[in-house]
Design a protein that fits this description.
By secondary structure, the chain is α/β, with parallel strands linked by helices. It has helices at 7-11, 85-88, 97-108, 114-125, 131-149, 152-158, 203-220, 233-242, 252-277, 281-298, 300-303, 305-310, 318-342, 352-375; strands spanning 24-28, 43-54, 57-67, 164-172, 180-186, 191-198, 223-229, 248-250. A hairpin with a 7-residue loop joins β4 and β5. The chain binds zinc ion.
């Protein structure tokens, strides 16, 4: 998160609009004009002018305020604002909900910094907000999101058709240098239950979070059938203490990550061995090129473009053509093998060394097919049947 601005100060700071701002004009009426106290038709008693940004441009909004015309009615001293006003922009905001959501989305879904958001608002929407102002909206967005996330009624609705739940816990570092955020997440509904920043994740502190998850599950009336996490000691002891009957499984992702390290090390070692064994490509290529040059000198017609125009195919030495295409095949094999040796693609599930072995075996099989074909009197090159190196 960015610098902590003094947000109360920003809150009271009115936005300064340039004199030539081209506002669109919106007008809002009170829809239900019956006085809440006496039922009489209310009158317009005042207008409130508001200015704010929307993604479509700046807006001037006029809200017609109503009150009861009867001076003896309690509804006379109060004013009623148009019902729709808060659905466009909250009171005192310099932006509409659309800009607010845009900022929150860029900040939390795209992880943009506040200066980045500020510049993009200027560049794409001509919306001029200061950094402290954006920080304030980001903070409000976060507050609303947290309130919604912890609304038990919404949660109860989401879990209506669910009997058994699966819980996970993990520590995340949201940004470098910040405390680790411990997140409890429920897997069947893919919902973050809560997140608590812990400066030091001691076993009692972590156990407190697991106890909180237990309490939530009890409030919802759901049975926890499984816990999934990495095998951090605090998780193992905390889950065993709060959920003695519930199995605790090692997270697939963490397991794979931990297993991947030795696998990739062994694979990398195997790769080095293979590279050591398959060598001498350059020597083969040089020999072939030399051979080609020499045969070209003996048969100048083949490589002389001027001559080729006038020489018919029958007059070309068939022996020389065969040598030429054999050279091309050898060079192509060399290129393929070099490509295979330089290929570092793949990961723990498809290790580069295993890919290399498979590709080298394919080349060997291909060469063997060529040799077999030659023995059988077939002159056709097998290059077309090659696997992609
Ligand atoms: Zn009244």
């Amino acid at each position: 998160m960015e610098t902590h601005w003094n947000t109360t100060e920003v809150d009271t700071m009115p936005h300064r609009w340039p004199a030539d701002t081209d506002f669109r004009f919106w007008e809002l009426d009170v829809l239900d004009r019956d006085c809440a106290s006496c039922g009489r038709m209310m009158h317009i008693c005042d207008h409130r002018y508001r200015h704010f940004y929307t993604l479509e441009g700046p807006v001037e909004l006029v809200c017609k305020l109503n009150h009861c015309p009867n001076p003896d009615c309690p509804g006379h001293a109060k004013t009623k604002s148009p019902e729709m006003e808060a659905t466009i922009a909250l009171p005192a905001w310099a932006i509409g909900w659309d800009v607010f959501c845009w900022i929150g989305h860029r900040r939390f879904a795209r992880h943009w910094s506040i200066p980045q958001i500020r510049h993009e608002l200027i560049d794409s929407y001509a919306i001029e907000l200061t950094e402290p102002c954006i920080a304030l909206y980001v903070q409000r967005y976060q507050t609303m999101l947290a309130a919604r996330q912890q609304d038990f009624e919404a949660m109860r609705r989401q879990y209506e058709g669910v009997d058994d739940i699966i819980l996970t816990i993990d520590g995340l570092q949201p940004e470098k240098g910040h405390e680790t955020l411990y997140v409890v997440r429920e897997l069947t509904q893919k919902r973050v239950w809560f997140a608590v920043p812990l400066l030091s994740a001691t076993a009692p502190e972590v156990q407190r979070l697991i106890a909180q998850a237990k309490q939530w599950a009890e409030i919802l009336g759901k049975r926890v059938i499984l816990w999934v996490s990495d095998k951090q000691d605090a998780f193992v002891t905390g889950i065993a203490a709060e959920f003695p009957e519930v199995p605790h499984r090692y997270c697939d992702n963490h397991f794979l990550r931990d297993a991947a390290k030795p696998v990739l090390e062994a694979d990398s070692h195997a790769k080095v061995q293979m590279r050591r064994k398959v060598r001498g490509l350059r020597k083969i290529e040089q020999a072939v090129l030399k051979h080609e040059r020499e045969s070209a000198e003996q048969n100048p017609a083949i490589n002389d473009p001027e001559a080729t125009l006038t020489v018919s195919t029958e007059s070309v030495n068939p022996k020389a053509t065969e040598v030429d295409s054999a050279c091309a095949v050898v060079l192509a094999y060399c290129t393929a093998v070099r490509g295979i040796l330089n290929d570092d693609q793949g990961g723990p599930l498809n290790p580069p060394g295993l890919r290399m072995t498979a590709a080298l075996n394919d080349v060997r099989d291909s060469i063997q097919r060529n040799l077999d074909a030659k023995k059988g009197g077939l002159q056709k090159s097998n290059l077309a049947a090659w696997p992609r190196a």
